[in-house]
Amino acid sequence: MFQGYYDLASNMITQNRNMNIISNNISNVSTPGYKEDRLIESTFREEMIYRYDQFGKTQVGTVSRMNIADERVTDYSEGGLRETGGALDVALTGNGFFVVQTDNGVVYTRNGSFNLDDQRYLVLPGIGRVQGTNGPIQLTTDEVAIDTQGNITTEDGLQNFGRLQVVDFADYTQLTKITGGVFQAAAAPQASNATVSQRYTEYSNVNMAEQMTRMMSGQRVLQGSAQILKIYDQLTGKIVTLGAAT
User: Fold this and answer.
1) Theoretical Cys-Cys bridge with 181: which of 15, 34, 108, 120, CB 3.0 to 4.6 Å?
2) pTM (2 d.p.)
3) Are residues 4 and 230 in contact, defined by beta-carbon separation less than 8 angstroms?
4) What is the pLDDT confidence band of residue 218, given thresholds at 50, 70 and 90?
């Protein structure tokens, strides 16, 4: 019986983590370039089950114990493109990330909803300055043209401001999400063949209907575990009471 306490408690902890991930996905459903996270569940260990009868001890099989959170994985599949009309909005088609310099180092993102700071540098608001192939990009106007290779010029093409730095990674498991659709990397980036589209941003790849279904399923599991845990507690109380009476 007491093993059940560990099994149920671990399942509740795992489901709480799962609900946090789902809630974060839902809250970022409108964040350009956001990539959905999923919780991969596993079991802590397997135990051998035996049956005892008049013939002795018989092996029945194995049972998994303690549902736990194994790892958090990110789905890097592309979202669709949404037309915004903003001259500083850009989206990527194909594998790749924009490069942004923050106070704590370089990060990578698919979020191309850019703006200008007070010094007219191209920035991802709240994150940092967008990097070009030759460093941060400073504009004299926000009326610009951006071609499919990421080259930024005035609309008449007479002044060139630089080229957006777009990179990719051979192994996406080396990326760690730090906030929204922003990642840090433990490996060096490589060249990307992604195409840049001006006046568009990329939708997040979160499926709202799927997330709501997963949330309802997780809530049922969480509630069921809590109810069974309450029954275990009541049974334990009766055992203690009966034991004291005898």
Assistant:
1) 34
2) 0.82
3) no
4) confident
pLDDT single digits (tens) 46-102: 666 666 666 666 776 666 666 777 788 999 999 999 999 999 999 999 999 999 999
Nearest to 49 by CA among 37, 62, 35, 67: 62
Instruction: Give the residue from 241, 218, 223, 237 showing the smallest Cα distance to 1.
Output: 237
Distance, CA of 54 to chain centre: 54
One-letter amino acid identity for 102?
A: T
